[in-house]
Amino acid sequence: MDGIESEDEDGINMDELKASLAEVRSKKAIFKNRHKLKGKLVVRDKKTKLSTMVEHFESIGVAVNKESLRTRSVSRRRIGDLEGA
Known about the structure:
Elements: H1 14-40, H2 50-59, H3 66-71, H4 79-84
């Protein structure tokens, strides 16, 4: 290996072997990154409980009226509902 390219009995030299090894490692890294990102793309439920909201507001120092929060629940409206009203 002192400047002489060594070839295996299959005709593969060390440079080709290193290049193919680097290619395989880069593909493995891509697969690992895709797998990590897949977990972050999962949709999580955005609904919170009233008690959780009240605790949060009280912890930051906001006065909370539980009854008024209950009446402010947001429901989806359709175009037909809006036109009928």
